[in-house]
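Researcher: Let's try something more involved. This one mixes different molecule types, so please make sure each is placed in the same coordinate frame as the others.
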Amino acid sequence: MWYLCAFYHRLLDYRKTEVESLAELFGARGDDRSLEWRLPEQHHPDTPFHFVNLPSEAAARDIANRSILVKGIYELWGEGGSYEELEESIRSYPDERKQPYLESGSTFKITVDCFGKVISFQEQNDRIKGLAYIPFKGRANLKNPDHKFWLMEIDDYGVNNGLPPVSQRRIFFGREVGGADRKLLPTYQLKSRTYLGPTAMDAEMAFLMANQALATRGKLVYDPFVGTGSILIAAAHFGAMTMGADIDIRVVRDGRGPDCNVWSNFKQYGLPMPVALLRADNNLPPWRPGLKEVFDAIICDPPYGVRAGGRKSGGRKLLKGTVDPYTVPDDKRTDHIPSTASYCLAECVHDLLDLAAKMLRMGGRLVFFYPVLRDDDHVENHFPEHPCFKLIATSEQILSSRYSRVLLTMVKISSYTEEIAETARLQHIEFRENHLKWLEDGNLHSALFSPAADPQLTAGNDSKSSLEAKPKYRGKYV
Amino acid sequence: MRLLTHNMLSSNIKGVANGFPLGIEVEKVIEKQVELSADFLRNLFPKIEWKALVDAARTMGYAELPEEVDSSMLDSNEFLTKFHHALLELHLEEGALVCPETGRRFPVTKGIPNMLLHEDEV
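Model: All components are placed in one shared frame. Result:
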């Protein structure tokens, strides 16, 4: 059955992919086929309103309630280009679909919502009164109604307000089936988190990642770059068992004190503690050789080398060739802190894919962020690939004029074979032997922060005059 | 560090043929209550190296696990409780994991095992 899905106007690339993943989680998608979507006539693709075909109201409710970006999924009772058309449409909607929600003894509430414009309380009331032809027999209850109805409007208000262009007015009236619980965000916001690190994942994004990974009760989720545990918190909220590793023991074991560490973060929200936290190097993981297909999902934000660089074992000077291989003297071994070397993005992602290919169950999901340089609003589509994985979703979040990060969702579709293991082993050796070359090639940090030929600087003189111009549609910048 | 973690780790020092299972040096063991999830246990059961788990549990002071197991035992609540206790409720807070071939100690402090290799073990 077709439902109207109204999204929040933010993180545009993430909205439909979230619904697709949740549809899979709740069994609302048959056999890998994606959901059917329809745009309302003449709507811009970035519009908040989309029609989606879902198998049942229960599925629609489950999906909407668990999501973060769905404002609401509605059973559409009517739509039109004017209030007269809307009335005709609602009157012709089958009575047997409307009756059960208009009964006497039930309570209801009607909310009026205009996308892109704020309307006065008086106007809202007038519009609700204009719906008097709908035979509500129940009582109104604004705090906790049995049934919620929404009167939504999108129009070309003549003001270029930076929102997607609308060619003509469209009005929708529907019964709410479910909607995102945005109260999760103030509860889990980083502002009030006990233990934070410089790259702690923002709460809203962490929930989106956990939804992409299908985190639920009974599953084991792993983060190989756990840091302060911000991503695992979201997975734990949805009931998954969590496990994390990091190469920096100070972050994972010590934190900033006995009441300010990864454990205290979980305690703050009353969530079950991670099953395991360990200090391990993803480049030389400590897993026993026979271990495989043990995680249901791997969710992480690997170090891109821009604000925080990755590290791997092996001795910084050793790998660069500055010193010859050395042995740590026996009497110093116990308290020796091994020197770590820079870990370039290419090798980091290679190791992540190798780990995931081996350790994920079949059908398990790998969800991670990948940084990309932006070239005139286009993103270079050179995403990492691996024979064991199928890339099913990419969602871009613009970070600056020069780069974005893209959330990649991959599903494991074939087993980790001897051949794949051998290829990975050879690639690992290649990285080691050409350590310096890999550090310089594709170094994101220098590409971003190099002062040379900055197009923004040269365009600076033009931008001042264009300040007077109307704000353009901001697209993915929201 | 729980025995679930111990069951997954091995010593991957260069030149070591078989670094699993790691020996356990106990300095401090504590028991932490964890809610039992039968689904989780059943999903993990096939991945566990049983003998290593039994031996490790014994080192930590818990000898109730059966030596031989098969998957039909997962239907018994009594077995699940013992499995759950050994796997998730016993914690090595302070101590070390020991490589079976070289004797190299991987320290466990505040419950976190440090599995990072030295420069000459890589």
